[in-house]
Amino acid sequence: MKHLRQFGGGTSEGRSKDKMLLGGKGANLAEMASLCLPVPPGFTITTEVCRFAMEHGAGNYPAELPGEVDAALARIEELTKTKFGDATHPMLVSVRSGAPASMPGMMDTILNLGLNDSTVVALANQSGNERFAWDCYRRFVGMYGEVVLGVTAKSESDPDPFDEILDEVKKQHRANRDQDLNAAALKDAVGRFKAKVREVTGKDFPDDVKTQLWGAIGAVFQSWNNPRADYYRKLNGISATIGTAVNVQAMVFGNLGDDCATGVAFTRNPATGTAELYGEFLTNAQGEDVVAGIRTPEPISELTRTLPAAHAELVRVAKLLEDHFRDMQDLEFTIMKGQLFMLQTRSGKRTGKAMVKVAVDLVAEGKLTEKEAVLRIDPAKLDEVLHPTIDPKARPTPVGKGLPASPGAAIGRVVFTAGAAEEWANRGERVILVRTDTSPEDIHGMKAAVGILTARGGMTSHSAVVARGMGKCCVTACTSLRVDAPKKTAMFVGGGKELRLKEGDIITLDGSTGEVFLGTAPLVPAQLASELGTLMKWVDRFRTLKVRTNADTPTDARTARSFGAEGIGLCRTEHMFFQPERILAVREMILAADEAGRRTALSKILPMQRGDFAELFRVMDGLPVTIRLLDPPLHEFLPHAQKDIDEVAADMGVSSAVITAKVSELTEANPMLGHRGCRLAITYPEIYEIQSQAIAEAAAEVAKEGITVLPEIMIPLVMVPEELRRLRALVIEAVDPILSGASIPYTIGTMIELPRACVVADKIAEHADFFSFGTNDLTQTTFGLSRDDAGRFLPAYLDSGVLPVDPFVALDPDGVGALIELGVRGGRATKPKLKVGICGEHGGEPSSVELCHRMGFDYVSCSPFRVPIARVAAARAALSSEKPS
Amino acid sequence: MKHLRQFGGGTSEGRSKDKMLLGGKGANLAEMASLCLPVPPGFTITTEVCRFAMEHGAGNYPAELPGEVDAALARIEELTKTKFGDATHPMLVSVRSGAPASMPGMMDTILNLGLNDSTVVALANQSGNERFAWDCYRRFVGMYGEVVLGVTAKSESDPDPFDEILDEVKKQHRANRDQDLNAAALKDAVGRFKAKVREVTGKDFPDDVKTQLWGAIGAVFQSWNNPRADYYRKLNGISATIGTAVNVQAMVFGNLGDDCATGVAFTRNPATGTAELYGEFLTNAQGEDVVAGIRTPEPISELTRTLPAAHAELVRVAKLLEDHFRDMQDLEFTIMKGQLFMLQTRSGKRTGKAMVKVAVDLVAEGKLTEKEAVLRIDPAKLDEVLHPTIDPKARPTPVGKGLPASPGAAIGRVVFTAGAAEEWANRGERVILVRTDTSPEDIHGMKAAVGILTARGGMTSHSAVVARGMGKCCVTACTSLRVDAPKKTAMFVGGGKELRLKEGDIITLDGSTGEVFLGTAPLVPAQLASELGTLMKWVDRFRTLKVRTNADTPTDARTARSFGAEGIGLCRTEHMFFQPERILAVREMILAADEAGRRTALSKILPMQRGDFAELFRVMDGLPVTIRLLDPPLHEFLPHAQKDIDEVAADMGVSSAVITAKVSELTEANPMLGHRGCRLAITYPEIYEIQSQAIAEAAAEVAKEGITVLPEIMIPLVMVPEELRRLRALVIEAVDPILSGASIPYTIGTMIELPRACVVADKIAEHADFFSFGTNDLTQTTFGLSRDDAGRFLPAYLDSGVLPVDPFVALDPDGVGALIELGVRGGRATKPKLKVGICGEHGGEPSSVELCHRMGFDYVSCSPFRVPIARVAAARAALSSEKPS
Asked: What is the dihedral of CA B63, B65, B69, B71, to 10 degrees?
């Protein structure tokens, strides 16, 4: 059993597929070497050795490893015609981490290893460049001192000890910049670095190159468990037990003169997807200089002028690698004395736009099948394609950061009330509604605004849900924001500073990152390229899951249909109730003393609801429309402002005091768990009766126009089968005379959104034609977590990794998912062909869509702007679960 | 296959065990007949026939039935030497329902069947009493007209048509009472009754006795499905498919003269259990006269004077039946011309006190084994034995009715605030705290009061839980009550009337029925008879489930230990936080700006908590004490009154405005699902750290006194295993140095109170030494039902039978129970010996205790006054699940 794999010199013991064993970097170095590409020779110590060391204690390795390392070093020496630690032709190596999953910058790297007081002289002689040699040496001692020997700043506020020394040296040698230091000054710096190491560690800096190497290997392995890496893994759901590989590779130098360079390149433009070599380089530099940002790199095209042969070689290699991996590659290279060396290749990160274009182009070029192209799409990244975004090239510094609740970007003037939003918007201003939190009463303000910013809430709080439904940019839970709406001011606090906002100030929101900027940030509009259309055609061929939309208005429904929605999965009737001309009647219904009073008020609402439904049916001609009967706690509709109370009182002919008392009586301790959903209809059956009547009359009216109407009536918040049995009978009694008369088929189903409903789903299914899982509420009740309040502690849960992901964003497979599976199994045990869907916010989140596919759902339903995302996710899920043919 | 069973005349085709087939009444009539007791002959048509008719349509019976009925009638004729419809010796029969489960008064009965214009003359001649005969006839026509022919009042507000006629007849004949009507008047009434029947039904009243009989049989079968019976079955969980039997039996008359009587008797005193024949009778009357309450019955002992032979026979029969059924019997009898006839026997309903005494006495008399006696105990009824009750003999009319939240009775003066309660109590007054709802801040007022009455809440709302914990009478959800605390008044509204209460008015609460009375109702104190002690000794021998208590104070703990508690299953540390000398420090902790501030405040609380825990450990010497770390949302502790805000602000050296702002910031939309439970410790670990320290220090201190301390530290509201993993480590770090040093064994476990925790219990168990199911919160989240708000609609659910029982009272087996089972299975899959308990309010409810036993729990924990109930329920559960030996 070998503990390392060698590469370079025309052979290679590993391949790209060996990522678990060799890490991403090592596997691809091996692959490049196997393609006879110019890779400096080296070897990769496997992740198994890392796991061995984790198990047996740091620094403990398999007994055979030292011998294998020696043999591998000998082979590098032979290929490079150098010798490790040799006083005339010294070999230098880099020691780099490389885990199976990409963890950029999280672990440690050491360059120029193999230098000591004698080899540095040889390097100077050999290169004819004394300054170069000493610069390598001081970089090595600094890096090694920090990473391996632990000579670091005592606290975050203290300066780095080596930086401090270098600053002193620069002062003494009157140098402004690092590159102004001459060989003598650098030699001085090395001496002082070493003295510092002795002072801190009590030991001399190791001169022996083997000691150096083993120290570096150990440090890289141990960096797997540094807190930074640990945190990164938790956030990204990477297992802590995998371990990292260590890559030891002969150094090549981009800093040996003007015929040397170092750079990065993408085989296609990662912003647009255009097929062009894209990247930048620095002449006469080492890799870390690019990162440090001391000099401005030049675009790759410049290389044709300065080093044309190397450029031609890079173009050749890039094409070869892209063809080989059949994907856009992100390359690291060094040019030493005009000769190109490849140091890394991997799949390149790209924008949503580039992702789509590259995938479609690669199919056109015959390099990918359509299925493969679809599997290359990250559905979540499609968001960027569908919404305007902040220009990534001109990104200002944010003044605040919240949750990216609804994507896209928005620029507008700050207003603090829904009324002001409408007022300013009516004047033609673009406004951003800034609130502590929004309530359903703010809906008109949200409609009037181009973006919404709230101090509280979360990814699925009211503001987030409504904003996504509207395709409107929204940032929630911006915890540093303090809003004082009465005074028309707000403040960003934190870091000891305060920044005041007043009405009319312009801000920019980035709903894709949660960032808030003062003033106008440059935007890039959404451009729906033709490639997206091509892609979506493939997608629809592959998926089996239907995709519907959550839409309450004809506008939303039209948008969603244009995005490919195959019906409405959730129409929330209550959103129609908030319109100003209706809210009065709704309030009268709630505040009525008896059934007769409620019926009077409901009869005012009936024709309006009928009109709403008719219009939705028209837009969705031929597609099913699921209408949920009234769900929210009634007190959400209650008047709170004195003016509103007086209005209701006058209209109902009672005193304002009576209304005030009723409002206070209806106040609930936990409205989410209160008098809502079908509980409203158990106590006041006339509400559902009249809503059902409105649906049936609308359907009959529209059917006469020749439109195909497929109404599905949905009863929310069922906890016991008996609720559904009764309410189904009530709905049938209200709609059947009308619908059967007009030969309109209809179904009656229920939302499954309480844990109990999942558990007794077999019994509930006896009275249901379909189940629609309401995963927002199901997540709330399963976790015992209010999405309105979670903003106070959920960020801490996510930051510290107690929760890997916000369960309101991605469906929790272990908890909520397990209950849903129970529910689907129960329901289908009673009715094998029971239609099953999801209408929570998760219906548009890729991992959740995949989970729904696996659990045998018939459809998902999501907000209009997420429909394309869900379609792609559904296709990917179908392809992933295909048996290999 | 026979469709009926005959009885009487020395033989009997059925037995007591045939209740499913013959109904309770029929089976016991058969049993009595088989014992050669004086039962008028008759037959029982089986419940199978009822089911046949339900399946094939009303009035459709098995083809053989008419022949069997004829044969059975012939046998009665033979035994009674009468003939059905005969003009000289007519046979009259009663036709009565009788279901397998007792459904008193829910279905129909017809007496005196067989009368018509010719048989009535014969009856008059035969009895020599013309008035008697016509009285029977008018009773029969009225009863038959209503029940079989449907001649009833048009609506509830209209008068009964036969009553209306009888009133007219009385007016015409100048009679005040029914018994003042002579034969002629009654004959007149019969004529008019028949005319009414013709008017309403368009048909003549049937003269043919067979037609009468089949009409009556059909009506009784159909009454199984009348709405009243349907409702009763839903409420009592009786299946609608069982059906009723019909009993046809020769009439005997208690109204033939002064040597006749009718009555009811218990073989023992049903109020006290004393072994004495107890009951009452009416001379010269028919059964319905007793119910109608027109005449006052006489005590059974009077019968020795008036009809000594019949009395002696009744004593003989009573003893025989009690010995035979080995339980106290409830008898119905008629004496005709000095001869006793038995019409019914069944187990007698009795008070809790009588229940215990009868069971223990029957064992002493050698009639029951100890196990049988325990199985005869209804644990819920023990409540009556443990609390004072309102004298059932002198029960006034209630002015309001709520939920019976905590049993017993209380009399006191009305106060409307916790402050007033303490003030009045300090003056030596007994007070009843009347609130819209109570909050934790009211706890001192509740302590000061003898009873609590709230307009809102439910069986497990704050007031109910705390009151039961204190063993204090409490009525919640008194929906007709409107409280205006600032004005120190309250009002009972409803029925168009208003009744005002002011501070200081005396009221009486019945916590066992939920009734509220004005003024002082007479009370009967709790008397713990020696029989209870005997019973509890048996109980403890049989049960396998341990019974602990929920106790937060040494007083509660002492009470519970005296009731037999075997440890504390739940000590809620937050209740200690509300004490006046602590609340300030608690508020400072919550309002602190940072960890340092919180630690300063916590360090003030530490010594006080240490003292609390030490005292609990002393009381529970040798028994385990489970202490739950802080659970409720912090805002529960926040100051709301300006005075309190100012006090906190002054103590913390900040402005009141800062505190007001912080209070508003901490306000939650759904606190039940908010920042509470172990979420507090994920964000502020120091809270649990210092509480753990207080527990450990208290344990070490008390152990030095020679007391055996068994601390169990419990972490609430875990939703993901990672929470528990971290907090367990935190607790161990805080307590282990102290406890291991003092060699005190301890365990760390968790509450399972969220659906997600049940689902991932296998993973949670990795970090838990025990599970304690928090069924209050688990019920809330499983049902999506806030117990604070459910009062607005849960009564409607229970009244209409949508829910058979309040899930906060009895553990819901199908939903919550299924999740618990999942949790137990998961936990024990990881740790087969995992200790499992329950600490919700259900821990003291008999059906829930039985469910816990079946699911393999180790213990239940309940409020102190429920400990004996839980012990009995546990014993019954163990005995019920015993394999027959």
From this structure: 70
What's the rounded Cα separation, in Å, for the pair A840 and B292? 60
**Cβ within 8 Å of A, B 420-449:** none
Q: Range with the lowest mean pLDDT among A351-360, A398-407, A815-824, B864-873?
A: A398-407
Report the residue of A751, A753, A756 to disrupt the B interface, i.e. the one with the largest count of B CBs within 10 Å: A756
**Amino acid identity for residue B827 in this structure:** G
Among B331, B289, B292, residue whose Cα is nearest residue B310 = B331
**Backbone dihedral angles phi then psi of residue A406, each to the nearest 5 degrees:** -150, 125
* Token pair 């997807």: residue: A273
A781 contacts in chain B (CB < 8 Å):
673, 755, 781-782, 784
Show the CA angle centred on residue B260, arms to residues B259 and B264, nearest 5°.
135
- Take residue A780 and report the two structure tokens written for it: 């709330």
- List pLDDT tens digits, range A155-202: 766 788 998 999 999 999 998 888 789 999 999 999 999 999 999 999
In terms of Cα–Cα distance, which of B77, B12, B494, B98 is closest to B251?
A: B77
Cβ pair B793:A682 closer than 8 A: yes
Tokens of B156: 């509830």
B40 closest CA partner among B340, B345, B346, B347: B340
Q: Where are the beta strands (DSSP E) in B513-646?
A: 515-518, 523-524, 546-550, 568-572, 624-628
Cβ–Cβ contact B503 with A under 8 A: no
Q: What is the dihedral of CA B796, B801, B804, B805, to 10 degrees?
A: 20
Q: What is the strand order of the sheet B261-266 is part of?
A: B298-299, B278-283, B261-266, B329-336, B339-347
Closest CA to A561 of A580, A581, A545, A547: A547
The per-residue DSSP string of B543-574 comes to --SEEEEE-SSHHHHHHHHHTT--SEEEEEHH
Hey, are the CB atoms on B753 and A783 less than 8 Å from each other? no
DSSP string, B88-117: SSEE-EEEEEE-SS--TTTS-EEEEET--T
Between chains, do A755 and B760 touch, taking CB under 8 Å as contact? Answer: no
User: Which residues from A are below 8 Å from B823, CB to CB?
Assistant: none
Q: Which residue in the set B760, B781, B801 is minimally distant from A784, CB to CB? A: B781
- Residue A782 three-state SS: helix
Test B670 with A672 for CB contact under 8 angstroms: yes
- Residue B155 phi/psi, 5° resolution? -145, 170
ipTM of the complex: 0.81
Rounded CA-CA distance B850/B839 in Å is 14
Strands B546-550 vs B859-862: parallel, antiparallel or unpaired: parallel
Which residue type sits at B125? N
Report CB contact under 8 Å: B783, A726.
no
Judging contacts by C-beta atoms under 8 Å, the chain B residues touching residue A679 are 793, 797
Predicted pLDDT at A664: 83
Which pLDDT score, from 0 to 100, does residue A777 have? 96
Contact residues, chain B, for A790 at CB < 8 Å: 674
- Give ∠ CA B747-B750-B754 in degrees, rounded to 5: 170
Q: For B5-35, write each residue's pLDDT tens digit.
A: 999 988 899 999 999 999 999 999 999 999 9
List, edge to edge, every strand of the sheet that includes A481-484: A481-484, A489-494, A497-502
Active site residue A839: yes
List all residues 6 or more positions away from A727 whose beta carbon is below 8 Å from its beta carbon. A678, A681, A682, A685, A688, A715
Q: Which chain A residues are closer than 8 Å to B668 by Cβ?
A: 786, 788-789, 792
* B449, B427 contact by CB (below 8 A): no
Alpha-carbon span B3 to B243, nearest angstrom: 14
**Cross-chain CB nearest to B815 (options A756, A788, A796):** A756
pLDDT digits (tens, 9 = 90+) for B369-400: 999 999 999 998 887 788 777 887 777 888 99
